[in-house]
Amino acid sequence: SLYISEYFSQSAQKLSFYSWYGNAKLFHFHVPEDTVLLRWLLQASRGKGPECTNMEITVHFRYGAPPVINPLGTRFPANATVRPSYSINITLTSAVQNTTFVNVTTPAAGDWFIAAHLPEAAGRIEVKGFSTPCPYMFQADMFVLRLADMPVLEPGVARPQTIISPAKPLHVKVFVPKHAAGMRFELRNCLTSEQKACAVRVVLGSITLPQSFQRIVTCVGRLNCSLALDSPPWEKWLQIMVESLGTANASVSMEMLATFRACRPGSASTFLNFNSLNQSQTGPRPGSTGAAGSPTLSTGGASRNTSNQRSFCLQNQPVVREDLDVVSVRYRLLNGPSLPVNSLSPTLLLLNLNTGMDSGGSLVVSLLLNKTSVSLANATVVACVSAASPVLSLNATHNCSTAFFQGYPLSVSMSSAEATLIVLYPQTDDWFLSLQLLCLKGQGECNAAEAKVTVFAYLTPCFNDCGPYGQCSLLRRHGYLYAGCSCKAGWGGWSCTDDTKAQSVGAQNLATLLLTLSNLMFLPAIAVAVYRYHLVEASVYTYTMFFSTFYHACDQPGVAVMCIMDYDTLQYCDFLGSVVSIWVTILCMSRVKKILKYVLFVLGTLLIAMSLQLDRRGVWNMMGPCLFALVTMIAAWVYHGVKRRHCYPSSWKRWVFYLLPGITLAFIAMSVYAFMETNENYYYTHSIWHVLVASSVAFLLPPRDKHKKPWAWSQKLTCRYQICQNDREELYAVT
Questions:
Q1: What positions does the domain EGF-like occupy (predicted)?
Q2: Distance CA 597, CA 604 (A)
């Protein structure tokens, strides 16, 4: 046999601490057909700085779709199917780099996904620029070894094969046709080169993670052995591996035979009625007709068609796939949302999810039983959702499994008429919904009965749009799109349905009030600025107070939210007002000439607006203007001190009662903002930041100029009257 090795690589990604699915870094690979060996090369590395510590990286694997993970141990939504992912841990200790290999023999061909992440996030809010996080990098490479000329078994034709040595197992494949109800594989005339009975192991199927359903049979001392499969995967190549268990020098010869049991499908209509594509899918309508124009079957009609249905192993229902948006699909039944279900053969619906871009959402299947359509009180409609091939024996077994897939069961009855199933990240394949009517006392009483079941099936990016306490985010890895829920207000879980740590409505209202009303502490600063004739500064403080109040009212994660304009606009205005307030306050303290002060006001505001547009959360957007203003203020104070030949400001009361308290409040505010804020205490610490900053401004503002008199409305009115009188006298004198 000719083996071909191939190598696939993707660029490294920087890992993040886990708080939601968007923190997991996804790698998407495609394994070619006839692959007999798959090897993952996982490389993890970290930085060399002192901030880098020992770290454990978790890596998840899955075939067909992104892995469904739950590192935080939260609850999934009700009716959601969850199967644990296959994962390994990679530990980075003193070594800067770690290399790990993962081997998979006879892997399934198609899409494979790897997701990697760091442990749970600490929840601390880090200001960009104050701390340098340690970079943890992860890269996944894929090596595959595939057969270029894998032998093909023809159904019903025995083919002789030889195993040269136990070190070289034999690989063959057979194509499973559509509507194959069963398969039988036989190994005949198995003898060694020494004409002795052989000892071989036969493996049918490929490995899929996290669960593998390979069928294995060991033939020891028997000339013939066989293995039967029910519901093999339709329209796919089935790989068969045979390896010798004997001595190293003996070859093994045998004959292989694969046969299939066909399933004759029946159809609800002989041709598609394209006019039904425009019919409403809200529910069945009285007097509606099927796709072929025939009236809907009733219980009596079912009894008249019993003999016709016995000749079919299933009843196909035509389904139309309607693409709505990215990872958003609706399935429409041409005969209406309500379909007939009987006990003689299962009713089958095809849900096409094989485009390669459908595995990043959630498949939702809902069943609703029409209670008036079933006359038997003990009748139950059993359903099964499976991939690759349908379940065709619902009346015999209730485990809802096919040859290589464990399906998801559903059931509706007179006591429970509704059922819903949520498949998170369904694997890329053809999915099938099988329904059949069962009777607890025996199938005989169900032969003449028929149930009406309304089926709703759709693919959505996020189930229930993540609820009221979550946001559905569309994520991308190269050209592959998938969705995840980002929860807020303490809610958690895959669809933000876990309320274990959720905030109450009262706590949400309290947080909103704290973050908004704490901005009212700018009122004393505004009053002080107006009283001391710093009108431009007072205008800036008013602007900051207004936009900070309404930004935090719009930024709340819960129900206590009010947005007067676009969120991004409010955030930008809040950040701009905060930095400009610091800028004008320090420049006002420097006591430079008015013309120079106002030029610096305008020029600095323009530069701050530009820098915030480039990087809104960068620490130098605040520190840069502060440092420049401080240098300007110190230079001005030194100039005034040298010119006056004494310390400036000269009054010790100014230092003790105003400057030192103001500077202390400002330093405490910066410490709280940079080092103490977390996701849990943000509402309180950020409110303290508002109070401290606004209070420090009131202390730091300089007094008014000596030649200016304080605000006195009576004097202002008198002066204004005197000016008016002088103008009149002057005009009278000129006349």
A1: 458-497
A2: 10
